Amino acid sequence: MYTQNGKAELVDVVEEMSRSFLDYSMSVIISRALPDARDGLKPAQRRILNAMYDLRLFPSHQHVKCAKICGDTSGNYHPHGEMVIYPTLVHMAQRWAMRERLVEGQGNFGSVEGDPPAAMRYTEARLTPLGAALMDDIFQETVDFVPNYDGRLTEPTVFPAAFPNLLVNGSMGIAVGMATSIPPHNLGEAIEATCAMITNPDITIDELSTHIRGPDFPTGCQIYGTSGIRQYFKTGRGSVKVRGKAGVEEIKGGREQIVITEIPYNVNRAAFVERIAQLVSQKVITEISAVRDESDENTRVVVELKRDTVPKVVINHLFKYTQLETSFPVYMLAIDHGQPKLLSLKEVIQCYTEHRREVVLRRTRFLLRQAEERAEKLEGYLIALAHLDDFVRIAREATYREEAKTRLMAYKLAQDRVQSIGICIRSVARLINGSYPFSATQADSVLELRLYQLTSLEQEKIKGEYQELLENIEDLKNIQASESRVLSIIRSELRAVQKQYATARLTGIVSEESEIHIEDLIVNEGCIITVTYGGFIKRTPVSAYRAQRRGGKGVIGMATRDTVGSGQEGDFVEHLFTASTHDYLMFFTKTGRCYVEKVYEIPEMGRASKGRSVANLLNLQPGESIAATLRIQSKTINSGAVAVDLTWNASLYILFATESGIVKKSNLVNFSNVRKGGIIAIRIEPGNQLIDAVLTTGDSEVILVTRRGMSIRFHEEELRDQGRDTVGVLGIRLEEGDAVVGVAIVRPSATLLVAGENGIGKRTPFRDYRLQSRGGKGVITMKTGDKTGYVVGALAVNDRDELMLITTGGQLVRTHILGIREAGRNTIGVKLINLQAKEKLQAIAPVVSQTTDEGPAPGEV
Fold it and tell me: Domains in the chain, please, with CATH?
């Protein structure tokens, strides 16, 4: 590197880069990105407002072009170019960005849709009353001034700040290695909290929260829950859940529409409307027929609904899939005493209070000095008027002004004469050898006396002003000596701002218990969930399928896609099961991950519809496909005024079975808090995959069935309870080329139903399967061959159950279990379904038994 004298000098690159980066970091942190805890402003904001003050752009004055403001700011205080200054100026004038605007704009200052403002040559601005209030008393030596960047001028290091701007308007900024995110608050509440803390410095956070309830965003909306507010009040960091405001209106034809009148803070309205349109086109939300933005100065987004749609259900979908509900992260980082510091609510108020205390004291000293200087001049007037002949003679005898001044300063007045004039209070300290000397200031002021001031009326006015000054001086000295007087002044000045400028709260705060529970809006009814091999899912009412006799051809249950890349002619239904709309669905992928959703979140579609991609419902990882799905019955009891969720029962277990014969048992409680992105349910080794997962009581017997017709029955006590991220143990020892295709829980009153891919199946009593130790080869459960094909599934069924048969061509046949006769283990079975050419039976699943339009089921009266 080169030194100042132009000589080259070797330096350590690492050391130089480290020092330079630290210097740059501190410059960004202190001088650009973070606000000052005292006035809540970043340097660029402060310099813009200071330039506007220099231009006298007060609320009562006319607007001035923003180009002039930005030019003066850049030329005098902030030499970073007008194009970076103008966006900061615009931000302070946007009503949707600032809770209390500091700049009043005239012209196009952008929009909440993200539209840019007009060029600075077209827009105009001036200070708002609160913007001007930040600089009240700035030239009464209340704050320090430092030279500007070129030393021609001086600029304030901080504003006096007549109100707690950091709390009121918040701040957002990204520095090097740190960032700040402070929400805006209500002006009246912030002042209430500040006054409360001034009155009681030992006030607690809980007591402060009775005065300042939480954020108050300029866009309104509602905050759900107070836990995040309490957290950042205490620690300076937290997260607040914000929801927009939506209502329901009736339109022609008996239909309804949702009208959104408020959207969360910092959400782009145009992007929000576009997101709704995307969800409709992707069929994630199917109940919406149209969406349009009818906003002017106020937000009005209209979402038209299809007939017979429950509006609150759609509103909850909007909360889930769009930015109608967002989380505002709070990180209250600000510059305190020259250093970045994470501040709690109490510390923020304390920083502001200490700043105002310093402002009041410095202003008092300034006013006291001015009062004393004026009193000194008035004393000179009073003495001169009392001895006017002497002073006129001295002035007339003098040859020039300096001689007159010197003679006046040599003029001494006896103490008794001073007291008789009425200036003894201030003269005592200046008496020298019992006489009162004139000061240079007094001599100059006397020489500048005008003739009209010699009238008796003017003399009385001077005496009255002097007496008022004496009282004012004593009052100012009292303020300096009394801490309580200083705090009282701070409170009274804050109250004056509050009375004049405070507005009602815009953002409501509701407890988490007040949230809408969507289960209360949805009928608890049975439905059928179908999932295809290609990853498409839907739910359909049970009534859409009618019962048929054994051997029927069935009905089209699901239209399938043309290709799935599976070697089959088309997509096919891979999983089918029944559930209630209030239940939970646990999805387990072949790679061993788990996802949880509510049944009502599954899109409802007709019997012949294709379904919707699971990727729109679950955050599946690349290459993942669903292997098993469990219904977890929702159970909630009321214990007094509190609802207790018993859904995730610690007495229940999930038993996993993999293709290679590995089994594992895990407690259901381990899955009560599944993240949206899923969690590991079982560790799958390379070359293996999850086949199925079943719910057990921990005291059940389990049967594993293989594709070549082998089975093994063992007690689950042989399986210890394992955590989620474990492999498991061996359940059945497989022959080469064999694989597990099903797992069933033994029920004494039930039978084991197995089905082959050629549509052949049978039921066998569980007593035909002897209990063995896990890890053995097992026994025959179905005699497989060309007639039956390989086993495709196994179920534990009762006589009154119904069975759904799913083929690779998308055909679904629903039949009664009682129509399938029982047979021994080592037999073939009977025909369950008539298959078309090249069609295979793909899967079997139980269905809730119901009476249908074809008459009662066999055995029913």
Answer: 41-160 (3.90.199.10), 245-323 (3.30.1360.40), 366-487 (1.10.268.10), 522-634+645-847 (2.120.10.90)
d(CA 613, CA 620): 11
pLDDT tens digits for range 286-332: 889 999 999 888 899 999 998 777 787 888 889 989 999 999 999 99
Q: Tell me how far apart the alpha carbons of residues 742 and 746 are, in angstroms, rounded to a whole number.
A: 13
- The answer to whether 215 and 183 are in contact (CB under 8 A) is yes
Q: To which residue do tokens 């059945």 refer?
A: 732
| pLDDT over 90 (residue 135) | yes
Helix (H/G/I), strand (E/B), else coil: 793 = strand
Q: Which of 37-51, 382-396, 479-493 has the lowest mean pLDDT?
A: 382-396
Whole-angstrom distance, CA of residue 55 vs CA of residue 593: 65
Indicate the angle between helix axes 187-199 and 345-386, nearest 10 degrees: 80
* Confidence (pTM): 0.63
Q: Mark 178-198 as b/e (b = at least 16 C-beta within 10 Å).
A: bebbbbbbbbbbbbbbbbbbb
Any catalytic annotation for residue 149? Answer: no
CA–CA gap between residue 323 and residue 265 (Å, rounded): 10
* Terminal CA-CA length for the chain: 101
Catalytic choice (2, 53, 77, 122): 122
Per the CB < 8 A criterion, the answer to whether 544 and 607 are in contact is yes
Q: What percent of the chain has pLDDT over 90?
A: 40
Separation between Cα atoms, residue 470 and residue 466, nearest integer Å = 6
Convert the pLDDT of each residue in 20-51 to its tens digit: 666 655 565 566 678 999 999 999 999 999 99
Give the CA radius of gyration of the chain.
42
The phi and psi torsions of 733 (rounded to 5 degrees) equal -90, 120
pLDDT of residue 782: 87
